[in-house]
Every structure is written in C-alpha cells, then in structure tokens.
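Input chain follows. Return structure tokens only.
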Amino acid sequence: MARKKQTTNGLDVYGAGDVQVLEGLEAVRRRPGMYVGGTDSKALHHLVYEVVDNSIDEALAGACDRIEITIHPDSSVTVKDNGRGIPTAPHPTKKISALQLVLTTLHAGAKFGGGGYKVSGGLHGVGVSAVNALSEWMEVVVDDPRDGRRHRQRYERGVPVTPVEDVGKAQGHGTQVTFRFDPTIFEGVDYRFATLVQRMREMAFVTRGVTIVLVDERAQPFPQRMTFYFEGGIESFVRYLNRNRETLHEVVYAEQQVNGIGIEVALQYTNAFAESVYAFANTIHTVDGGTHLTGLRSGLTRTINDYARRAGLLKDKDSNFSGDDVREGLTAIVSVKHPDPQFESQTKVKLMNAEVKGLVESVVSTAVGEFLERDSKAARRIVAKCLTSSRARVAARRARDLVIRKSALESMTLPGKLADCSERDASKTELFIVEGDSAGGSAKQGRDRHFQAILPLRGKILNTERARLDKILNNKEVQALISALGTGIGDQFDISNLRYHRVLIMTDADVDGSHIRTLLLTFFFRHMKPLVEGGHLYIAQPPLYRIVAGKRVRYAYSEAEKEAILKQLEGQKVTLQRYKGLGEMNPEQLWETTMNPENRTLLKVTIEDAAAADRTFDMLMGASVPPRKRFIETHAKEVRNLDV
C-alpha cells in the first residue's frame, strides 16, 4: 500500500517512516559510483584493481612475490597470490570468521592500526567488500599458514551462501579470489585485455621484484598471456617510456626513507616537446597527482634554476625558468610509500598528505643537484633545452595574445568559416570539425542549426607532436580551432569557457581522413587534454556503403556489415554505392546517417592510460622513424585487405 504524502503549509514533507537505513553492502549496490566510480568500463576494470591491490599490499609487506590474474571464458576473474592469506579464524569480538568479516563489512581490514601492514594501497577497508557487493558471485579460497588448512567460502551479490569451509590441507599459502561482475549493474561492458596489461605493467614497475602474470582465457584456442617482472623498478619504467625517444643523459634515480616514508624518483630528459610525468602512492597511480607530484615539480624547477645561475648560463637580466620550461621533454616517475596516506576519494586519484611535498622536493633537489654537478655536459644540454623552451614560450605567449586580440576584432572571437548554432546554452550544443569545404557545405546544409555548429578545416593541420607551441599558434587551422572552442590553449586552457559540450571529428573514411583525424587527436591530447578527460571529444562514424534494394535504403558502416546486409538481400536487385568521402553524400544523407542524434554512431575518445597514450602518440607522430616502421610492419596484415 502506497504511503500518503504529508503536506504542511503547502509543502510536501516526509516522516520518520521514510528514513531508510541501508544495511551491510546494500549501500554499495545502490550507489556504486561512490565506491568504484560508476558502472561503466572504467569502473568494471576498477573491480580487478581493488582485488589486485590487496595482493600488492602483501608484496609491499614482503610476504608475496607472485600474483596471477586470469580472465575466464565467462568473464569471471581469478586473482591469486602467495601471500599470508586472509585470516580465517573467528574474530575475537564479532564471533564470525575474519574472512567473512572482511568480505561482507565495509571498513573492515588489517590496514588501520599498522599491525598487519606498514604500507598499503587499500586503506579504507572498502575495496574487496565493494567488489563482493557488485559481483553476481564470488568464491574465496585461502591457504592459511596459521593453521595449515585450506578454507573456502562462496557469496552471491555480497551475501554468504556457504559457511567458511575447511576443505583440506593447505597447498602452500596465499589467497585466491574468483568473482563474476553483476551484469545487472555493469550492463554492456566487458574487460579489455589491453587495459589490464597497461595497469599490471605499471604495478610491476612500481613493485620491484614481484612477478605479475595476466592470462585471458577468452582468446581461443590459445589464451593470451603476459608476464611482468622488473628488477629495476621505476628506473626501468622511465627507460621503457623513452625507448622510442632520443635522450639527453642517463636516468637520474634516487631512493630514500624519510620519517618512515619511502620516496623514489626517476627522471630523464629527451628531445621531445611534451612532458611525461606520472605519480604513484603505495603503487596506486594517482592520475590527478597530489603533493608528491607538486614536490617533484617544485624541486626540479628550483634546482635547475639554481644551477643555471651558478654556472652563468642564466644571466642577471634573464628571468628564471618557469615550471613549463623545465618540464619540456621530461620523463619522470615519482613513487611514495606512505604508512598513512590520505587520498581524495575511494578511487584514490589524488594524494593529499601535506608533508609529502617538502620531503619529495628535498629528495629531488639533492639527487638532481648532485647529478648536474657530476655531469656538466648533460647539465649544459638540459639547461640549453630549458633556454630554448623558455624563448619559444615567450614567442608562443605573444602569438597566443595576437590570436586572442585578432579574434576579438573578428566577429565576436569566432573564425569566419565557422557556421555557428543559435543555441547559447553550451551544454546543449555540439561542434563538428569537418574535413574540407565540400563536406563542410553538405554538413552546413544538413545540420540542425539550432544546436549544431560546423567548422570546416582546409587540408591537414600541423603535426603538433613535432612543433613547439609558438609554431603551432601561427597555424591558421589551429587558430580557427582555438577561437571556435573558446577555451584557450596550454597553460591558459579553461574548460569552463568551452562553447560546445560535444566536439565531433568528422572525416572521410579513407587514408587521408584517418591521417587528419590522427593529427587532430594529437593536437587535443597534447594541448587540450582536459577536453578529452572531460568526455567532450567524439569521432563521428559516417557509413562506408549505401545499399538500395527496391525502395528500401540501408547503410553499412563496415565491410562486415555490408556483407551481412548483402547476404540478407540475396536474390534481390541491389544497388551498391561506396562513399569515398563525406562530400559524396547529399545533406539529407549526411544528416540521416552521421549527424542525427537519433540514428548516428559516435565513438567517445577517452584516455584509459595516459602513459600508454603518450607512448603511442610519440611513436606514431614523433620524429623517430624506426619505431613507426616496426609498428606498420607488425600491423600490416591487419589492413592489407581493407578497401580504402
């Protein structure tokens, strides 16, 4: 029977009976975003990370040196380690097995008082119990060295369906967790092997001496298998990131324990223009940085400025290098191991401990200062690169100011070739970046002028991977992009000024179109990364074929889809048209297939792994030819038969 609404003075009010208390893990199932960041692909992979983090914590405690992750054909996942095993004996006050307590109770774990773990990534006692709550089922097997027995328990959607069972003699020691995500919560998503590969490689780099094995049994008849082991730790990580780049010196590495906090730093300068700096706290990649990253940056900037002054490479009339000047071409990793880290949220994207900044800054200053004094040739190369960067940045600032002043005088900051929309609420608008005037004409005629704007680009924009900002800002097509989006660029980028909620790249389905799309993606990744991270960038998917049978018209977006449609129409008279470019479509066809929100297919551009994306853009768009040649030769078979 429905409860009647109470009204007081015309207001709907609620009574004591309306207050709900979510028991046990029900809160996790009702609000998964609070615990794993959502219900999308990223959150799904976070389930695996939470379980693996527990095994990594065993490794940090010196109790584990091997972790195995297996994706089974039904998309269940097993994480197995040779650590100490979750305790299975009854808890002294709760009177149930400690294993069941850890897996069914939020904020239950051995990482609060410092007795079980001096350093750990799992801090809130939430991770594995949240995974249990969001799993269709979970089974945990513990080989407990405390009593020499093997124990097992099974759960369904966070609820134990068996007691903790003694199933025989222990076979070694450690914990094995197998779980299958709940498809009613994570709909239409599955694990990507490549995403897990990147994360496990990172973990192996920052957890020196631990073997991590990743197996995907969904690949049949031969499962995919990757094994990671790096004795060199983050020093090896920097070499790995720079393997396709020309470096200026050997890796600078420092490791120090300060007040019980472990600090590791590795860095190396290259001839590239972009910086590649990554921060980890207790092996967790803090994608939004934090105090350890701030300490690295400030320590490096101060030390290089001090050296350049002492060596007479910066004159009295010269201003100090900025942080951006010092970080151009820098590849660096900072990793801290803290007994009581404070993260911004359960998903641990930012480290907040204030004391870490000064400690990291001190370690960086000492290590880099000693290196510069020891290797004067490398020091002069680094300072020379900073000087060139500084001069280019001054020129870029002048060019940027010129772009802004020039734009302000031309039609309210908008480029002349932009066909703007009438809607002024940015959250409701979208901008199509279109290749060429011909396609731009069709798009302008076919669009919904209320909320869709069109910006046609003439030819291929500059390869921004091989150019400094001053040269980039002198490119007319780049100027048009910056003016149309309204956000500014580089250190002056402001996402709040974005004029269109969706930015869609719409190019021809041929080699030139792919190249233009890659050039644009390179520009957005290097100079407008918050636009990508905010989920504003998309790739439109125009059809490859128009298939007419009688009065019915169908469109195919891939070779496989074309073959499937032709098979369905077998025996009928069929007219097949292959679109070589967007300009071949009339405005109605372009609207119907590619621009109409009700029919179109869009690919959302995301950065699942910034380090991997950084290496990919450097390899495909950078100056070094051999890595690109190897990539093309490796993947040539995949594209040999494509009709482009």
